[in-house]
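Ticket #4471: complex job returned nothing on first submit. Input attached below:
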Amino acid sequence: MQAAGLEDPDQGGSLTIISDIRANAATSGAGARAGSAAGPGIVRIGLIGCGAIAQVAHLPAVLSSPQVELAAISDLDASRLQYLRRRYRLGPIAFRDYRDVVGRVDAVILALPNHLHAPVGVELLSRGIHVLCEKPLALTRQECEQLCQAARSTASVLAVGFVARFFPSTELTKQLLESRFLGELQSFDYEFGSPGGWSPLSGYNLARSTCGGGVLVVSGSHVLDQMIYLFGDVDVTSHADDSRGGIEANCRTCFAATVDARPLRGRVVLSKTHQLPNRLRIVGEHGTLDVRGSQTRSVTFLPSGSTLRHEITAAALPPADAEPDYFKPQLHDFVNAIRTGAAPRVDGEQATRSVVLTERCYAIATDLEEPWCEATLERLARAGPDPAPDPAAPQPPALASAS
Amino acid sequence: MSPERPRRVLVTGATGLIGGRLCEVMALTGAFEPRPFVHATGSAWRITRFPLDFATGDLCDRASVDRAMDGCDAVVHLARGDGAVMRRGLENVLRAAVTHRVSRFVHISSVAVYGSEPAPDSVSEAAATRPDLPYGHTKLEQEHRVLRYHRRRGLDVVILRPPNVYGPFASFTVGMVNTLRSDGVAIVDGGRNPCNLVYVDNLVEAIFLALWRPEAPGQVFHVTDREPVSWERCISDHAELVGVDVPHVTAAELAPPAQERVWRDSLRALSDGEVQRSLARIPLVRRWFQCLPEPAKRALRARLHRWDPVRRNGSPERRFLADHPFIAGQKRTVAHSSEKARRLLGYSAPVSYDEGMRLTAAWLRQAGLE
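Support reply: We reran it on our side without changes. The output follows.
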């Protein structure tokens, strides 16, 4: 069902919207049926997982939206829930067990550690609760497919939080490529890196079992999703990273795509230990397109054979004094999908493609060379206490490979 | 008491330069099993490359320190932070170490305890400590706290005092490269004084030895590279890596320290004729000046005219600040010796300066800093 004017978040509910939500409630189970405190047309939202991204991005977006009501928050950490209740003067809507939100919400934002996206998401979708899941959708292709299947089985919305898709610069780049503004494409190059970064409160980012990977997942999932969006089917040709059994902090990956029936090569360099230029660069026969990480509203065109730089913005883009909060349009897109049945901007199937690509990268991973890491190890090992050798003990990886 | 030859080692400050490399080497050699104590999980990327037994928490929270210490045989304390971390955090780690009866507590201090211009006798650890900057004071206070636990609670502590730590990921190295790129460093008076360096892996060797050698408890050790390197060589070698020329200046050509610059720049602004004429139009200022005794008036006039900008190579200002760490450090005449660590611990500083710089250059290339 579609209703005119639904793209404008400031427009209130209409009869069409209300009937749509009721129709959804009638077909999608307990989640949408229970509770009726929210006003007509208002979507009751639950926030599952109240860590850093939830507090910094999702909660402010929910609280500022006239389209939704914050109906529940859930986190294992009771003190965190208490803090949020006090800070935002919330009613008795905090639950340590996420299952307690069922019956109180129409939809949830799933901001749990990555390894919990699939089990919790499948359970909620199966109960007819719409899900906006933080990226990455899940750790494996199989988990992604389970999530998509659960969404299909209850006709629930499964949207995925690739917030960079809501940057006007992403859409502008797509338009320019589709209009063959650069002519024949020659290469693309992503370089994103800075020392350290986001510190999830739960510490799930410390292990592959809970995070699913390192920089390729944490920063790279945005890159891979955008790359697939811009260039279509992309395959990985080589991937090297610095994981030593844990999660990689640096990686260099090469990709191949076919655009306009011509082969296109690309490279992605990601780092969590040092600064990189933080930009996408696309080279074509007419020049180079640069999109810096901080450049969310425009792109830069450097024509071939010229020293000029052209800043390009979308014609319809209104001026903005400050950097917009893109979690708001992401939430609006999710709500719009719930109300109208339209697909969200990034649905489960699209998000699955970046997870599949991540799996392929890890499957062919080789070691990045780090001579400074290995060169002195044998000499340093001599300074250890030299315990009696245990024949059953496995060899340390580096020395084993060096010998 | 934990075994004499510890296996599982709690490493505080594990996300920093030394802690990160220490955990790496422990994991790669299998010499010890590190348990990195992590506060900001987003800063732990170097060590999350390994499947380690991480402990998360806050050093100022006794319970989380206690949990982290459980099952550890020894501790290497490298954490830095605000006053609370440096005092209460250290106290919590020491207390937990006693409670859990660890066999060794290795505390990383600094030669900053000798002050910014160390006395000649600070070649050896027996010299008096004379910190003159907040960091040196805090490190010395920490040493006293650690040694108190040795004397009163019988904790086997070892204190290591490294100088400038260089190598991959080192802030000394990155700082030097960036300062050279921004023309902020010069070789002063030939740069003949010793730079007092230790390559990070040499420090790791010393920590390994301090963790188990029976001669170590209760001792304080300098940990430096084998051969002293002059500032001239150190700066020139870094400059070569980034492809810049380094100017040579004399001490007299340096811009004065910050405190002095505030006065100088204020007086210089006052010496501007336009400013003086404006001030002279303010009756209160005029009356105040007229009330001054004649010698004071003359002195003030002379002072105001003294602060003409000094030009060097066409630059409106002298570029090199006397209190910049890479400039001020060149005044230190002492080469701290790690002879005691060699004698008692068998410290060998296995990585020469040349090799250390080669490995550093390889890292700089990959990090895009060369």
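Chain B has a mean pLDDT of 91. Closing as resolved unless it happens again.
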